[in-house]
């Protein structure tokens, strides 16, 4: 005997439930779109403020800012001219010195002033401040003295000249670093300070720095 059971028909209640579920889904979708649009607008508003905030955060380190004083210009010139005679002096130390300590000091001069010279030339261009292409006549005379010396005489002359020169510029570096309003000059002063400190250390390591040299430096300090 075959069964003639009929498929159940959707009841009116079931149809209303399905319709309500579809309506709820539509509302949720609409709310989600609205929330997404609102958040996107908020993100765009925050992003619009970021460049100004980043620029402020970069501050003076982000580029060249601040007036350049007469002292700043003099300092830039001194850094340039120091390299123009101390690098040749460093090279002479490799061939004229009798002490390995002097040769080591000469290498420090070559490396340190090569970097400072590049920085000084870059700052000169950025600030439109001309710098010389030659050392002073006095500095060129020091190089000539070193060329004519050999052995232990060279060693002592090298230390006398270089330690006195570094000690005197060290005083100027402190004044510039403490007072300059220009970020490029401030950076140069900081780098120069570190380099000159290193050079004084290796010169003192030779054991040839005399009281007379230190007294000469002290005599240049304003009272």
Folded structure, characterized:
The structure is a single chain. With 223 residues, the protein is an all-alpha fold. Helix content is 77%, strand content 0%. It has helices spanning 12-58, 70-96, 100-127, 137-147, 151-179, 183-204, 211-218. Helix 2 (70-96) runs antiparallel to helix 5, helix 3 (100-127) runs antiparallel to helix 6 (183-204) and helix 5 (151-179) runs parallel beside helix 7.
Give the assembly state of these chains. Answer: single chain
Task: Estimate the mean pLDDT confidence.
Answer: 82
Q: What fraction strand? A: under 5%
Number of helices: 7
Helix content: over 70%
Can you tag this structure with a few keywords?
mainly alpha; globular
Summarize, please.
Helix content is 77%, strand content 0%. The chain has helices at 12-58, 70-96, 100-127, 137-147, 151-179, 183-204, 211-218.
Question: What is the secondary structure topology, with strand pairs?
Answer:
Elements: H1 12-58, H2 70-96, H3 100-127, H4 137-147, H5 151-179, H6 183-204, H7 211-218
Helix pairs in contact: 2-3, 2-4, 2-5, 2-6, 3-6, 5-6, 5-7
